[in-house]
Amino acid sequence: MTHVEEDEKEEVAESSEEDHSSDESESDEGEKEYRAELEEGDSEDDELASLMGGGGGGWQLASRAATLPKREVKVWNVGTVGQRKKNAIPPKPEGATRFVCISDTHNRHRMLELPAGDVLLHSGDFSLSCKEKELVDFTEWLHEQPYTHKVIVAGNHDVLLHSEFYERHHWRYHTEKIERHLELKQRLRSVCTYLEDELCEINGIKIWGSPWVPYYHDWAFMPPDDAGLKAAWAKVPAGVDVLITHGPPHKVRDKTYQGANAGCPLLADAVFKRIKPAVHCFGHIHTGYGVVKQRDSTFINAAIVNSVYKVANNAVVFDIK
C-alpha cells in the first residue's frame, strides 16, 4: 500500500450483494470511459461482472469460465476469511495450472492458511518497511511453502529490494543502514522467481512482473514522473498470459475508503489498449480486494490485510489453461 500506517485508513472489501452491485457500476463507469478513449465504435457491450464471492458458508465460486483468445480462466475463493472452507474449491481441471494469488501480507504471512496449487503469486508489500528481520523471515517462509513455483514482485514497502532507492533513502526507514541488502535480495531470489520488469514462463504460461506504482510520499518503486511509469509499462510484452504488478490500473478495483480511484492511468492505458493479459494480479489498495472481469481480462486485487493490517481476505485461486 502507498500509505504509511497512519495514512492508511482503508476498509476491507465486503462480499455482500450490495457491494457486488456497486462494484459493477463503478467498474462499468471506468470501462465506458476507456471505451470512449479508444474510439472503437463497437456498439456491443463488453462483458463486465464483479466476481466477489457471495455470503454464506464456504469459499465461493467467484467467476464463471471466461474463454479468452488464448487461455481459459476460472477464478475461485474470493471472500473474507470468515467464508473459508477449503473443500469448497473443486479439483483442478485436467491440463490446467492452479495459481494461488496473494498480496499486501505486511508481515502477516505466517498467519495465512493457503490452499493447494501449482504456483504461488505474491504481488508485493510482504513487509512494513523491509527491515532485515522482515525480509529474512519472509524468505524463510516462502522457502517452506509447498508450491512447485513461487513468483513475486516487490511493493513500495519492500524498500530493501529497490537497491538504488535504498542507497539514497535508507535513513528514512532504518536506524542503521543494512549493508548487505544486495545479498539479502539474492537470497530471496534463490527461493522464488523474483520479477522486476522481467518475464518467466511456467507450463507454457507467460508471466510478467513489475513493482512500479505512481508517486506518493516517495516510497520505493515510485518513479518521480510519468516518464518512468510509461517506460515500465512499455516493457511489458503484448499478450502475456498473467501480468503481476503491485498496483492496480486506474478504475479497476482501486477505490480507497475516501472514494478516490488510486490506480495508475498509464497502466490502465497499456493494459486495455495493448497488453490485454488473460489475468492481471495486483494489490496495493487494500479496499480494492476482489475480482472483476473487463473485456478479455480478469483482474484480481489480492490484498490480504485490511486498513489496520489484520488478515481479512482469502487468497484468490485461479486455474488457467
TrEMBL record:
<dbReference type="InterPro" id="IPR029052">
    <property type="entry name" value="Metallo-depent_PP-like"/>
</dbReference>
<protein>
    <submittedName>
        <fullName>Ser/Thr phosphatase family superfamily protein</fullName>
    </submittedName>
</protein>
<feature type="compositionally biased region" description="Acidic residues">
    <location>
        <begin position="7"/>
        <end position="17"/>
    </location>
</feature>
<dbReference type="InterPro" id="IPR004843">
    <property type="entry name" value="Calcineurin-like_PHP"/>
</dbReference>
<dbReference type="InterPro" id="IPR051693">
    <property type="entry name" value="UPF0046_metallophosphoest"/>
</dbReference>
<dbReference type="GO" id="GO:0016787">
    <property type="term" value="F:hydrolase activity"/>
</dbReference>
<feature type="compositionally biased region" description="Acidic residues">
    <location>
        <begin position="39"/>
        <end position="48"/>
    </location>
</feature>
<feature type="region of interest" description="Disordered">
    <location>
        <begin position="1"/>
        <end position="56"/>
    </location>
</feature>
<dbReference type="Pfam" id="PF00149">
    <property type="entry name" value="Metallophos"/>
</dbReference>
<feature type="domain" description="Calcineurin-like phosphoesterase">
    <location>
        <begin position="98"/>
        <end position="287"/>
    </location>
</feature>
